[in-house]
Specification:
mainly alpha, about 80% helix
Length: about 170
């Protein structure tokens, strides 16, 4: 008989926090890569900063991904891939951020599908191409996903601290 491992809410909180950080780092990578394509002049300080940002974001994303692998043993209970959690608040934060990300992607994809090859849209994004617009949409979705997770989890910690102070005062 398989033994069920109980997953603590703190463990789910840590895993979701790492997922949010990975999303933000991915967004930074996408936006830095997009900016590096538009910057000309190979010897400018801006290119050096963008290249450093790309390098650091790749390394940090790898480090965070390796950290998230320690949660793999909880794959059946914690929703390692599905982001479904036992703790109600962590599950709420996860589902809210995924819903917002889905809406951004769907609305953005509909907009790009409808106006992607129209002359006015091509002129509007003149220095960029359609691929760059898709990359911007992905970066915006990843940034929203990660920022919502990290903001909501931070609010929970702040609420817990306030609640703890209230309990001590009584």
């Amino acid at each position: 008989m398989a033994r069920s491992i109980a997953v603590l809410p703190e463990t789910e909180h840590q895993y979701l926090s790492i997922t949010g950080k990975i999303s933000v780092v991915l967004a930074v990578f996408l936006f830095a890569q997009l900016c590096s394509e538009t910057v000309t002049g190979t010897d400018s300080i801006v290119n050096w900063i963008l290249d450093l940002t790309l390098f650091v974001s790749v390394i940090y994303c790898i480090v965070l991904s390796v950290k998230s692998m320690k949660f793999a043993k909880h794959i059946t209970r914690m929703g390692f891939w599905t982001l479904k959690f036992n703790d109600e608040y962590v599950d709420h934060v996860s589902s809210a951020s995924l819903r917002a990300t889905c809406h951004i992607m769907v609305i953005g994809a509909i907009f790009l599908a409808y106006s992607g090859d129209n002359k006015w849209f091509v002129e509007l994004i003149a220095p960029f191409g359609l691929t760059d617009a898709i990359q911007t949409l992905l970066g915006l979705a990843a940034a929203t996903h990660g920022a919502l997770i990290l903001w909501s989890l931070r609010e929970e910690e702040h609420f817990d601290e306030e609640r703890g102070e209230e309990v001590v005062d009584e």
